[in-house]
Design a protein that fits this description.
Layout (H helix, E strand, L loop, with lengths): L2 H19 L1 H4 L2 E5 L4 E5 H125 L4 H17 L1
Antiparallel strand pairs: 1-2
Protein name: Lipopolysaccharide assembly protein A domain-containing protein
Keywords: Membrane, Transmembrane, Transmembrane helix
């Protein structure tokens, strides 16, 4: 309990004890002046009754004040709950908006990455085709050079053979056989 409530209870208890102890004096009949008339009544009971009415009015006022405060608190609670709901909805919409924007950016990035990858693949294919053409040209040139070198070598060997044959006396049968070998060698190449 609050200190104020305890204090009020103590005052009421002391007042009740005082009334009980002095009940005899309070209940004696006296002439009471009410400004416009005079009456015969116990003054103590009139004072206690007036005090009781004031206490009752104060109690009613306190209850009314507490009830209005509770109503205000309830209204404030409802407003706070509504504001929290609005804030949560706003957060949800912001999260949804951010998620949508993120998905859009991710799609854009994926599209860009796919385009770049396609460009790189096309560039790689073009370079590969160019390298293959160049390699084919180099292979043809190498084959041509090899053929030319074989032809030169055959010509040089033929000239050397003629010189050797011309320089050496050879039997006739061997020369015929060598000529046949030469013809076979030339047929092979």
């Amino acid at each position: 309990m609050k200190f104020r409530t305890v204090g009020m209870l103590l005052v009421l208890i002391v007042l009740a004890v005082f009334l009980i102890i002095n009940w005899g004096a309070l209940s004696q009949v006296t002439t009471v002046n009410l400004v416009y008339t005079e009456i015969q009544a116990p003054l103590g009971i009139l004072v206690v009754g007036g005090f009781g009415i004031v206490v009752l009015l104060l109690a009613v006022y306190t209850v009314w004040q507490q009830a209005s405060m509770m109503m205000e608190l309830r209204a404030a609670y409802k407003e706070a709950r509504a504001a929290r709901q609005v804030a949560e909805d706003a957060d949800k919409s912001r999260v949804a908006e951010i998620r949508t924007e993120f998905a859009a950016r991710l799609d854009k990035l994926e599209t860009l990455l796919t385009d770049r990858t396609d460009e790189l693949l096309q560039m790689t294919r073009d370079r590969n085709a160019a390298f293959e053409k160049r390699l084919d040209a180099l292979a043809e040139a190498q084959e041509r050079r090899q053929t030319e070198a074989q032809t030169k070598l055959s010509d040089t060997l033929g000239e050397l053979e003629k010189r050797v044959l011309a320089a050496l006396p050879a039997p006739r049968a061997e020369v015929v056989e060598e000529a046949k070998k030469k013809e076979i060698f030339e047929d092979l190449f």
